[in-house]
Amino acid sequence: MKPYKDILFLAIPIALHSVLFASLGFIDTFMLSALGGDTVAAAGIGSRILWFVSNIMFGIAGATTIFCAQHWGAKDKKSLSVSLHIGMLHAIVASVVLVICVLVFKEQIASLMTNDKTIAALAGNYIQISILCVLVTSLSVIWGAGLRAIQKPKLILYLFVFELLLNVSLNYLLIFGHFGFPAMGLEGAALGTLIARASSTLILFFYVHAFERVLSLSKASFAAAQAKAKNIAFVKIALPIIGGEIIWSGGITAYHTIYGNIDSTALAAMSILAPVEILLASFSWGCAAAVGVLVGEKIGANQYDELSVYIRAGLISSVAVGGSIVGILWVSQDLVVGLFDGVEPEVLDAVYLLLPFILASIFLRSVTMTAMSGVLKSGGDTKFAMYLDMVAQWFGAIPLMLILAFWFELPVQYVYAAVLLEETLKLIPVALRIRSGKWIKKLAETEEAMEPMPA
Q1: Who's near 387: CB < 8 A, 6+ residues apart?
Q2: Are 37 and 347 in contact (CB under 8 A)?
Q3: Which residues span the membrane (predicted)?
Q4: Is 24 within a domain?
Q5: Total domain count, the chain
Q6: How far apart are CA 128 and CA 268, in angstroms?
Q7: Phi, psi at 260, each rounded to 5°
Q8: Nearby residues of 54 by Cβ (< 8 Å), 6 or more positions away
Q9: Residue 455 domain flag
Q10: Could you read off the pLDDT of 327-382 as tens digits, one per residue?
Q11: Residue 452 in domain
């Protein structure tokens, strides 16, 4: 039972943090639904762009967690600190480049995702403010990666509770203009998110430097983080993760673009369901992230007998988590959908039609997420995961969706059914890869091997 207890110890705070993070989109959608379907659809586009760009930050953070977890298992705090600084440098540079690109092309991006000019204009204004969150996120996700790697994820949860409460309060004031504040509508939601994220990151900075010195900024670690060999080792692991995030989240964004070009009703329905799906899938991510930390620790400590036990426990847990989520949402679907009764009736009808497909997707992703992110990526097998994502999405699901939507002109629920193909295609190759053992890589040894020999 120990593996399940260890997974539960890490998974609960990670999952709750992920749920709270995802709930921001859900809460924004709920509060903005009072302003009508166009506003909800515009928020959905803006949130999807922010989510896509943030996933690149999460990819860098994922690589940081992999290195830090193995160093933690090997009890090498010095190398852990250096890996954290490498991750921080890459995250900051990437965030600046991405934010500039989105700001320059925000109008074109919004127009690509919908053929409704009113919705595109609203989305462009939302993106202009919300994308600035990425600059702040580049810092917070790396410290969060470090805290997870040293198995102290509770702080991230507590801090995000503060961020969530602040965000909701600011949304209430800035969307609707209560207590003398300007009624900014959609732009108020974006501004509230930005202020809340910046505040929580500032608190995290002071906490880490006061109580978790191994994760604090250091001149020595910063100097070591500029070593070419260490950056090459980091990039070899990080690039496939980032590539996988771009491929996967780009595919999800392509799905959203297809919905938006079917009709505005389909786009509004998916804009309501997408935050719900992300919110519930966060429980599965908690399981996957916990398994990933423990897998990395066991590899770093050379405890391979225990490793297989933890992998088995992680996969069983993913099935249990996915099944529980689906069952709960199915029973409470009227309550969940009823929260959005401010939108048009035809949008709510589309939501009910799509819900069974969303539930199937949540269950399948619970299993594949744990197998790929929790096991394969944590063992350093990031290229395999990237290639698998690319084949399943871009050579499977997306072409089929385009055919169903624009050739056969089928309703959106049948188009969404093609999404299930993506996750189904992954199951067999993932199982065979785990069974082969070829995914296990000692990253700390790779770093040492790349160090130049002393003269």
Answers
A1: none
A2: yes
A3: 7-27, 49-70, 82-105, 125-143, 155-177, 189-211, 232-258, 278-297, 309-331, 351-372, 384-408
A4: yes
A5: 1
A6: 21
A7: -65, -25
A8: 133, 134, 137
A9: no
A10: 988 888 888 777 777 677 887 888 888 888 888 888 988 899 899 888 888 887 88
A11: no
